[in-house]
C-alpha cells in the first residue's frame, strides 16, 4: 500500500528565506506527483504536477523536483513571503486517472 | 478552478438522518472523486467515478454511497449519518489531458 510522508509537519521561517519542503513515498511505481496549497478553511489549489518521466517543474518562485527511484520529491520556495503561509500537500497517483494518495502536509508560516 | 462547485457548503445534521452532498462540474470531465479531510488523517478517498453509472470504492467507503446519473453531477450520500462522519468533504476531477486533479471548495459537515 502506497504511503506518503511529509516532513516536517510544521515549519516557521522569516520572510525572504529560501526553503524546501520534503515528500517521500514508499512505492516508486507512480504515474505523477502533485503539490497542492491549502489555506485555512479553504479548498486545495494545485501548484505543480510532475509526470514520472520528469525531473522537475517550475512555476514562478516554486520549483518541484522528483526522484522517482528513491521515492522523494521536494518543493523549493524562493524568497518566501508572508502570503506563502499555508499548508502544502503532496500527493501521488499510481496511474493517470487513479485517485491520489496524500501526505498529511507541512504547515508553513512565513514571519514578516 | 476547473468549474467545480459543491453544495451545500456547510451543513449541520443529526445522527441517523440521511444526507446528500452534491458535486457539479461544468467541463465534462470523466473522472470524479470524493475525499474527506480530517485532522491527523489528511485526505482520504471515499468513492470515485470513471463515467456515468461507473463507480468504485475507496479507502473509507463504509457508510457512504454514490451515484452518477449524468457526467456533470456526482452525489455522495450518507444513508444514516454518524458523528464519525463529521468532516470536510472535497470533490475533485481529473483533467483528461494532463491527469492533474482539481478540487472543489469543500463541504463542512457536522453530525450532532
Please characterize this protein's 3D structure.
The complex is a heterodimer of chains A (112) and B (112). Chain A is mostly beta strands. Chain A is built from no helices and eleven strands. In chain A, the strands form two sheets. In chain A, strands 2, 4, 5, 9, 10 and 11 form a six-stranded mixed β-sheet that branches. In chain A, strands 1-3-8-7-6 form a five-stranded antiparallel β-sheet, with no helix packed on it. In chain A, a hairpin with a 4-residue loop joins strand 7 (62-67) and strand 8. The N and C termini of chain A lie far apart (41 Å). In chain B, strands 2, 4, 5, 6, 9, 10 and 11 form a seven-stranded mixed β-sheet that branches. In chain B, strands 1-3-8-7 form a four-stranded antiparallel β-sheet, with no helix packed on it. The chains are: A mainly beta (112), B mainly beta (112). The A-B interface holds A 31-32, 34, 36, 42-46, 49, 89, 91, 93, 96-97, 99-100, 102-105 and B 30-31, 33, 35, 40-45, 48, 50, 58, 90, 92, 94, 98-106.
How much strand content do the residues of chain A show?
Answer: over 45%
Stretches of chain B where pLDDT is under 50 for at least 5 consecutive residues are none
Task: Name the overall outline of chain B.
Answer: globular
Number of strands of chain A: 11
Biggest pleated-sheet summary of chain A:
6 strands, mixed
Radius of gyration of chain A: 13 Å
Order of helices and strands of chain A: EEEEEEEEEEE
Q: Provide the helix percentage of chain A.
A: under 10%
Q: From the helix content, strand content and strand pairing of chain B, which structural class follows?
A: mainly beta
Strand percentage of chain B lies at over 45%
The multimeric state of the shown protein is heterodimer
Sum up the overall morphology of chain A in one term. globular
Largest sheet of chain B: 7 strands, mixed
Arithmetic mean of pLDDT of chain A: 96
Tell how many strands the DSSP assignment of chain B holds: 11
Structural class by sheet pairing and helices of chain A: mainly beta
- Count of helical stretches of chain B: 0
